[in-house]
Amino acid sequence: MSNLNVPMDVFIEEAVETVRREAAGRSVLCALSGGVDSAVCAVLAHRAVGEKLTCLFVDTGFMRKNEAEQVTALFRGSYEINLIRVDAEERFLERLRGVTEPEQKRKIIGEEFIRVFEEESKKLGKIGCLVQGTIYPDILESGADGHKQVKAHHNVGGMPPRIEFEAVIEPIKTLYKEEVRECGRKLGLPESFANRQPFPGPGLAVRCLGELTKQKLALLREADAIFREEIEKAGLDIQQYFAVLPGIQSVGVRGGGRCYEHTVALRAINTRDFVTARPARLPHELLETVAERITGEVKGINRVVLDVTPKPPATVEWE
Ligand code: XMP
Q: What is the pairing mode between strands 28-32 and 129-131?
């Protein structure tokens, strides 16, 4: 599927030109999330406005293991882009205390994100424009373009109506995910980044079901890292794979005694456009290794299950 009717090089030239025109000499703030979408936007915007770009990376506390550090190193180190990193974990958890309803979680995270942005941009003085990594499936699934809403996607539906920027620029809003990756490669992003699997704006918050706690997030982060490491070690070509903490606890045996610990679910899917998806077929040996490692290395998880549901009726994420 594609909305692209020009070669990628031409798209890039036009996108850079569009950002430059829409920015109209104003300074630009880019919402860097850690994913390929916002990374591509940041590089496009950097090409368009150079030093007038500031990237803001809000560490929500919902990133994957070591991810915040990798993002900071890439953009500050390799690209010499002005990057501000805000450690906002405590305030996100505080706002989300007691919240269990998935849409409410998404809305609160989206709002808090924008609030942090507004606060930080005020500190920077006058910033005219916000660049966002909205892509075409985000728009479809947030109910725009006459489509029925599935989830309030972080970068579209979760925003409060009042945004203190003169303009919001969305340079890749017509692209599908694979096109964003191709665009990233053309822009010189390292393969590890251009080919990075998608990660939702609200991050691990929508993979940790029910109320969020530091302890549950830590369990999920460790289990997820083990699952991803094993898939990568096996060299499997799977588009998206991650762990989910459903918030279920069950009885098990540890050290000869009864334990009552969390269950983790493994989700691995293949898709063409993320609008529909099929469960990936994982080798049983790999699944057993992952289950043994997670239950052995992550204290607090005693059970591992596999999600084999296609989309529809399930979505890729659990919330
Ligand atoms: P779903 O769960 O809607 O996911 O089937 C489809 C794809 O979108 C990703 N996803 C998001 N991406 N902001 C994003 O930028 C979000 O709020 C969001 N929620 C889901 C999801 O990981 C999958 O790749």
A: parallel
Does the residue 40 lie in any domain? yes
**Quick check: CB of 289 below 6 Å from ligand 1?**
no
If asked whether residues 53 and 142 sit together in one domain, one would say: yes
Q: Which of 151, 167, 197 is the last residue of a domain?
A: 197
Same domain, 117 and 156: yes
- Per the confidence metrics, is the pTM higher than 0.85? no
Q: What is the pLDDT of residues 64-92, one digit of tens each?
A: 999 999 889 989 988 889 999 999 999 99
Q: Are 243 and 223 in contact (CB under 8 A)?
A: yes
Ligand 1 mean position to 203 CA, how many Å? Answer: 9
| pLDDT tens digits along 199-249 | 998 999 999 999 999 999 999 999 999 999 999 999 999 999 999 999 999
Atom of ligand 1 nearest to the CA of 155: 13
Rounded-to-integer distance, Cα 290 and Cα 118, Å? 42
* Ligand 1 site-directed mutation target among 37, 63, 151, 317, most atoms within 8 Å of CB: 317
Phi, psi of 312, rounded to the nearest 5 degrees: -75, 170
Structural domain of 241: 207-307
Assess whether 137 and 274 both reside in one domain: no
Say which residues have a Cβ less than 8 Å from residue 80's Cβ, sequence separation at least 6: none
Among residues 163, 197, 231, the one where a domain terminates is 197
